[in-house]
Design goal:
Mean pLDDT: 83
Strand content: under 5%
């Protein structure tokens, strides 16, 4: 059979375009995780318990799990558990420990499914439909933006988890299909288990993990905000990431300095809407720094693998950053979070200062 016939057969297997499938799944994932973060921040005001949520989400990256596209169904199971927790919020309001355990277990299952299925599914979408990693990343960023907007507009939690489940289902259909028989993969692009480790990605994940681990609690307790405010902050961040492709190349240290400056500016005497808008350039700069790290890892293999190295290494760093910041804020006060995160971005800039110009 010719290559054209194989590709035609593969294309017929997909129920929709790969970008639509990827974007829908990403929207469902972001909506699920944003809704869970807000739900947990309402169950408990403990900084440590709130930071356990992203920490548990990073735990699967420490495990040597077999990667398979069908592992995506664990994400569906995770959302079903979250749906059950949201239904139990009022009748079981006194049993906060059970509600927290259910939320934590669901997020752990969700992230295990994401870890073991992301790379196989990305390669399947690229191979079967002739897509590219760049297009898939674009659809992911747009999906993230849509998911965060839905988190702001849909409330209470029950109205968030049901749409999230619907958005996740189309890619689940693809994950259930047997993987196509492809030609042998070059050595440089084979999936190693575990994926390679990258120190720069881990350090960036540590700081970013600290920033987002307490964001829901910060919006709720410092700004006296609502789920709409939290969702709009995430949506502004997602919008920035979605439009980052039009950003000129920058020295690798500069995005971190600018993010630090923008975070400090958000705490100045500015209107709340302006503080939310500041997360648009923060999202742009975060995406630019991600792309620069991935570009530096070219010898590791193909682009899907390099992005997974970034995600894995960053998530493990985020585990340390989120728990560490949670412990500090538990002992001291939530208001110390921002100065510590700002110092972290300055540290990132210093470590990248030897790359003063793009290469």
């Amino acid at each position: 059979m010719s290559d054209a016939s194989i590709k035609s057969t593969m294309n017929a297997r997909l129920p929709a375009s790969p970008m639509l499938l990827q974007g829908s799944a990403q929207a469902g994932a972001n909506l699920s995780l944003a809704a869970t973060a807000w739900m947990v921040s309402g169950i408990t005001a403990s900084p440590l318990l709130n930071t356990l949520l992203p920490a548990l989400g990073a735990l699967p990256f420490l495990l040597q799990l077999k990667r398979t596209a069908r592992g995506y169904w664990l994400q569906i199971v995770g959302v079903l558990i979250l749906l059950g927790v949201s239904l139990a919020l009022k009748p079981m309001g006194e049993y906060k420990t059970l509600l927290l355990l259910g939320s934590f277990a669901a997020v752990l299952l969700f992230q295990i499914g994401q870890e073991i299925s992301a790379l196989p599914l990305q390669r399947q979408l690229i191979d079967e439909a002739g897509s590219s990693m760049k297009r898939l990343r674009s659809s992911q960023e747009i999906g993230s933006l849509i998911g965060n907007l839905l988190a702001a507009l849909l409330f209470p939690a029950l109205r968030q988890f049901l749409p999230a489940l619907v958005l996740l289902l189309p890619l689940a259909v693809v994950s259930s299909q047997p993987a196509p028989q492809a030609s042998p993969m070059p050595t440089a692009t084979k999936v190693s288990n575990p994926l390679p480790w990258n120190r720069s990605c881990s350090l960036q994940g540590l700081v970013m993990g600290g920033l987002f681990a307490l964001l829901a609690l910060w919006v709720r307790e410092i700004d006296g905000g609502k789920c709409f405010d939290f969702g709009m902050v995430l949506a502004a961040y997602g919008l920035g990431r979605a439009i980052s492709r039009w950003t000129p190349r920058l020295p690798r240290w500069l995005p971190y300095v600018l993010i630090c400056a923008l975070l400090l500016l958000s705490q100045a005497a500015v209107p709340p809407w302006f503080a939310v808008l500041l997360f648009v350039p923060i999202g742009v700069l975060a995406a630019v720094s991600d792309a620069a790290l991935v570009e530096r890892m070219t010898p590791l293999g193909d682009e899907p693998m390099r992005w997974q190295v970034l995600v894995r290494s960053g998530a493990v760093g985020g585990l340390v950053g989120s728990i560490g910041l949670g412990l500090i804020c538990q002992v001291l006060n939530l208001v110390v979070a921002l100065p510590l995160v700002s110092a972290g971005f300055i540290t990132l800039a210093i470590t990248q200062s030897r790359h003063a110009t793009p290469t």
